[in-house]
Amino acid sequence: MVVALLRENGKSKISSLAHKIKPEKFGIDDVAQQIFGAVLFSAPLSVTEEVWRLAQSLSVTRMVVFVILSVVVATIIIYYTKFQRVAKESIGGDINTHLVGRMYVPKRLVSLFVIAYSVSVFILWLFGIMSYINDPFWTFKIFIFISFFASVGAATADIIK
User: Fold this and answer.
1) Is residue 8 included in any domain, yes or no?
2) Stretch among 10-14, 108-112, 153-157 having the lowest mean pLDDT
3) Is residue 18 a part of any domain in this protein?
């Protein structure tokens, strides 16, 4: 009887504590963290000729795999660390989500990819890589390659409190 009372009482305390924890809101500090992570992971890779040569040898299939992999990895990082709490709290979406088709996508994830791709383009432009390499398809391959690391960096920095 005492054990049953403790189980019931402990369960109610945990349940009440769970209702008090609110999901984290997406704000400007999260955007700053994403920018920092994208720059930190992509800038050193952007300036090495080895990365350029590696990107030059990418086939179209591998480029598609890089894009899919960046979406999957970033989504897993964001969902299991941040959005899962929001998804449990809000049924049908709230201010932290965008409606895309018939599903809700976290603003954090949309922001992550906009920032990762923007930072990649900016860094490639800033270091003069876009004007140094005259082949537009090769430049696009470098962009895809660098964007993978920028998106992983942005997601990783975003989960750090």
Assistant:
1) no
2) 10-14
3) no
What range does the domain containing 142 cover?
Answer: 23-159
Which position has the token pair 């409190």? Answer: 161
* 103 in a structural domain: yes
DSSP state of 75: H
Residue environment code for 15-28, b if the CB has 16+ CB neighbours within 10 A, otherwise e: eeeeeeeebeebee
Cβ-contact 158, 108 below 8 angstroms: yes
At 99, phi and psi to the nearest 5?
-85, 120
In the chain, the number of structural domains is 1
- Please name the residues in contact with 130: beta carbons below 8 A apart, sequence gap of 6 or more: 124, 139
What pLDDT shows up at residue 50?
A: 92
Q: What is the pLDDT of residues 63-122, one digit of tens each?
A: 999 999 999 998 888 877 655 555 544 444 455 555 555 556 677 888 999 999 999 999
Asked if residues 85 and 24 have their Cβ atoms less than 8 Å apart, the reply is yes
How far is the C-alpha of 40 from the C-alpha of 96, rounded, in Å? 26
Angle, CA of 97, 103 and 105, to the nearest 5°: 30
What is the Cα–Cα distance from 32 to 38, expressed in whole angstroms?
10
Share of the chain above pLDDT 70, in %: 69
